[in-house]
Design goal:
This protein is an alpha+beta fold. It is built from 4 helices and 10 strands; from the N terminus they run ββββαβαβαβββαβ.
Length: 197
C-alpha cells in the first residue's frame, strides 16, 4: 500500500456539492446539511489501516459535536477498485457501517469524480467546512489536514488536530498555529485513469 499525504486545499475554498448513494441505498444531497454550521467531508474506505483507525475517531466526534450543528459525511473513494479490493465494494459498506456503528452518512463515489473534484489523494482525507454568509456556496474550507498526530496509537495522541479546529470554528478554543496533512493509503483509481494506483 502506497503511503501518501493529502494535497492541501486552500483555506476559504468553497464546498463542492454532490448527490451520492449512501450505504443504505438512499440518495443523499449535500444541500440537506446546509442548515449545519460545520460539515466535515472525509474521503475514506473500508480496508486501509489508516482509514480503519480513523473510524472510531470520526464516530466519537460526530457523537460529541452533533448538538453543535456539526456533521460528518464519509465518502468511499475506492469503490471502483472493488475487483482488487472487494472489501471496499458497495455490498460491504452496509455491514461495515453497522459493525463500526457509523453514525453519519457513508456514501460511495461511484465514478470517482467527487474525489477528483476535491483533489483527495489518500484515505482518510478530511475537509472541514464552516458556514460562511459571505461565501457564494455558504460554506468555505476552514481546515484540511490530519485527524490527530498518532493514528497508530490512540492512547499516545498528543494533538487531536481536527477537534481543535472544530473548537476554534465554534469559537471555543484556539486552532493550532501549524497544520499538517493527513496521510494514508493512496486512493485506488480506476485502472484507465492516469492517477497513481
Amino acid at each position: 500500500m502506497a503511503l501518501v499525504e493529502s494535497q492541501i486545499m486552500k483555506k476559504g475554498s468553497p464546498i463542492i456539492g454532490f448527490r451520492e448513494i449512501n450505504y443504505d441505498g438512499r440518495k443523499i444531497d449535500l444541500e440537506e446539511f446546509y442548515t449545519k454550521k460545520l460539515i466535515c467531508i472525509v474521503f475514506t474506505c473500508n480496508h486501509c489501516p489508516y482509514a480503519e483507525a480513523s473510524w472510531p475517531v470520526l464516530v466519537d466526534l460526530q457523537t460529541r459535536y452533533r448538538d453543535d450543528a456539526f456533521q460528518i459525511i464519509a465518502i468511499n473513494s475506492n469503490h471502483s477498485a472493488r475487483e482488487k479490493y472487494p472489501e471496499d465494494s458497495f455490498d460491504k459498506m452496509l455491514s461495515y457501517a453497522n459493525e463500526n456503528k457509523i453514525n453519519f452518512p457513508y456514501l460511495v463515489d461511484e465514478n470517482q469524480e467527487l474525489s477528483r473534484a476535491y483533489n483527495a489523494v489518500c484515505t482518510p482525507d478530511p475537509f472541514l467546512f464552516i458556514f460562511d454568509k459571505s461565501a457564494s456556496s455558504s460554506f468555505s474550507l476552514f481546515y484540511h489536514g490530519r485527524l490527530n498526530d498518532n493514528w497508530k496509537e490512540p492512547e499516545n495522541v498528543k494533538e487531536n488536530s481536527m477537534e481543535l479546529f472544530i473548537l476554534a470554528a465554534l469559537e471555543r478554543g484556539e486552532a493550532p498555529e501549524l497544520s499538517y496533512p493527513s496521510m494514508g493509503c493512496s486512493i485506488k483509481w480506476i485502472a484507465k485513469d492516469n492517477h497513481s494506483k
